[in-house]
Amino acid sequence: MSRKIQFLVCPPDLYSVDYVINPWMEGNIHKTSPALALAQWDGLVKILKHHAEVEEIAPQPGLPDMVFTANAGLAVGKKFALSRFLPRERRGEEPYFKKWFKKQGFEICELPPDLPFEGAGDALLDRRGEVLWAGYGFRTELDAHPWIARWLNVEVLSLRLIDPRFYHLDTCFCPLERGYLLYYPQALDAYSNRLIEQRVPEEKRIVVSEADAARFACNAVNIEDKVILSQVGAELRARLEAGGFQVIETPLGEFIKSGGAAKCLTLRITEPEPPRRKAKTAVQSRELKLEGHLLDSGLLERALDLTVQSGGSFQILHFNLGKQRHSTSNADIRISAPSEIVLDRIVSQMIELGAVVAPQDEEDAELKPTTQLGVAPDDFLSTTIYPTEVRVKGEWVRVQDQRMDGVIVVDEKQKTARCTLFRYLQLGDRVVVGSKGVRTVRKTDSREVPGGSQAEHEFSFMGAGVSSERRVELTVDQIAWDMRRIRQQGGRVVVVPGPVVIHTGGGEHLSWLIREGYVHGLLSGNAIAVHDIEQSLMGTSLGVDLKMGGSVEGGHRHHLKAINTIRGCGSIAKAVEQGVLTRGVFYDCVKKGVPFALAGSIRDDGPLPDTQMDLIKAQEEYSQLIKGAELILMLSSMLHSIGVGNMTPAGVKLVCVDINPAVVTKLSDRGSVESIGIVTDVGLFLNLLTQRLQKLQGTEREGA
Ligand SMILES: NC(=[NH2+])NCCC[C@H](N)C(=O)O
Q1: Dihedral angle, C-alpha 244, 249, 252, 257, nearest 10 °
Q2: Ligand 1 center to residue 24 CA distance, Å?
Q3: What domains sit in the chain, N to C, each tagged with a CATH number?
Q4: CA distance linking residue 140 with residue 126, whole number of Å
């Protein structure tokens, strides 16, 4: 033994599984055998005593988990960072451990209340003592990591645990001598795995299988070349031995029933001070303000969920609850993340939800120039559908041409900002990067449509979501009401129909909508136009007779013939002009002067002369036609609808109709109250919609 090594243990006299605070304890209440537990514990301690000194702390009644001394805290040099347990059941251990370490002459560091940290269970020094690997996600809060870094003067590397079975870092991660690391990667998130791979060379990483992880093979005590653990598979044993380690197995099944094994039962109390003393942590925090119907709209819950799901953690600094149903609440939230990149990702999602930074912390948006034509700087901020403002030289500037999946370019001289796509970026364009100096303008009162009578409420869009069968009719009423209003006010409705509209017999209803002035733009592809024209010319759609419902001999030829005919005329409009095309959806578009854009694809037959096969041009044509639209009807056309959704700013009502619920969910899931999904046959939908509009028109005439 080259240096004195000491461990603290606690005899299992009062050990038992009395409650459930981790998945291993489930079904094991009062199922441990005191005699066997004692024998197993003795076995472990005997081995330890061969290689190190062992100190004991007395067990205490009512604290059955005190045997797991790894969770007492973390000792480095003569400093002891005392644990603050997350589970209520273990908090009673804190004073006993505190007293013991004080008596041994340690300086005790205590975390602020409500900041959980579970000691060496979640904080493991690499065996050179240079960095401290710290876990979070279940028992220890990320915000505890910077405290530990400062107190103990170490560099802390934060790792996020994602599998509840491996709730403490020491259940899946064990740094070994000579830079080796024994670990189970699946218990940690992708970001953490990347960090490990950056810090530990591949030849030093000993990856453990799930089977070994479940035997607590990572929960090992490493003393020089000895690796002491409960149980290990033959393959892993061989790998450890190849790395120059001697594996010592000592069964600890009684303790695994409580979710702990060799490492958990010990606490190393002679960790030398780190050689290079520098406190360092990549953990970053920012304060945000959130206002609105935080509780009843579920906004706060969503904000906090997304923080945790993205690998961050939060603290609510202030919360003012609105007292009346109509009054809004506000909250100050501190968001922490293991790195600036993760923090930026979380903050930009929070901004999307409407969070803002406190006025005193406001900064200008960070801009970086484009250095390659059509390519944004690496850390560009990606845009959303929501109205956005960026701070330019101390002033908030509204972003023009809002759309999602773009970037924001700022002109600092003119103090203007606009959304654009990668392909339009010019050299030197100043692009917004990171999440500073950006805010989304969201209605704080968007719990429901404000004001108005109950009758109006019934006609309002009832929030994002997919309608149930029963609600289809009510929803169609709402849409009809809106379409009538938009027509009266001279607004624009754009329809994105798929070929199914024709197959399901919806063509005549769509035609009616066009003729009656309810449609102001039509966006689709080659197929629907061909089907519609085939039907107009020959009464079939893809060779199927819509009246009889059966396929016609040589029917597919009809499809090609329709294409050939229009090609012969030069375009759809010319076919109408020449009297070749005399009815149908596209005939009515031409007659009514309703503009349409057809985007081509690889599988198109023909195509029709009107179909735009240059997709960049097609996207531009689409975006021109949706300008100023108030309502967009997406009718069984997934790809074209997704394309439209990407370029549509918030505030435009989207109605997605499809027989396939997955498509509807995909399209209507824009996190905005303006989108609504309807799962139904699109032909039936159009039929119902025209009926409702006719009824409303009837009322109009009566009233006139
Ligand atoms: N360092 C450890 N992993 N300790 C295991 C602790 C087990 C204990 N039953 C708990 O859930 O807290």
Answers
A1: 60
A2: 10
A3: 6-281 (3.75.10.10), 283-361 (3.30.70.2690), 363-448 (2.40.420.10), 472-702 (3.40.50.10690)
A4: 19
What average pLDDT score do residues 530-547 get? 83
Q: Which residues contact 644 (CB under 8 A, 6 or more apart)?
A: 494, 496, 523, 622, 626, 632, 634
C-alpha span between 498 and 683 (Å, rounded) = 11
Question: Of 17, 68, 84, which is best to mutate to test ligand 1, by the most ligand atoms within 8 angstroms of its C-beta?
Answer: 68
**Whose alpha carbon is nearest atom 2 of ligand 1?**
264
- Return phi, psi of residue 72, to 5°: -65, -35
Which value does ipTM take for this structure? 0.98
Between the CA of 322 and the centroid of ligand 1 the distance, in Å, is: 40
Angle between helices 340-352 and 299-309 (to 10 degrees): 160
Verify whether ligand 1 is closer than 6 Å to residue 641 (CB atom): no
Strand partners, 525: 599
Give catalytic residue positions.
168, 264
pTM of the predicted protein model: 0.78
Per-residue model confidence (pLDDT) at position 468: 56
CA of 68 to the centre of ligand 1 (A): 6
21 token code pair:
């605070």
pLDDT at 95 over 70: yes
- Residue 696's SS3 state is helix
Mean pLDDT for the stretch of residues 344-367: 90
Ligand 1 atom nearest to CA at 21: 11
**pLDDT tens-digit profile of 631-684?**
999 999 999 999 999 999 888 999 999 998 888 887 776 655 577 888 899 999
In 3D, which of 597, 574, 599 has the Cα closest to residue 587?
A: 574
Q: How confident is the model at residue 693 (pLDDT cuts 50, 70, 90)?
A: very high
Instruction: List the beta bridge partners of residue 175.
Output: 181
Beta bridge partners of 544: 541, 551
CB 135 near ligand 1, within 6 Å: no
The two structure tokens encoding residue 73: 């805290």
> What is residue 471's predicted lDDT score, i.e. its pLDDT?
75
CA atoms of 562 and 566, how far apart (whole Å): 6
Is 395 a residue whose pLDDT tops 50? yes
Are the CB atoms for 628 and 652 separated by under 8 Å? no
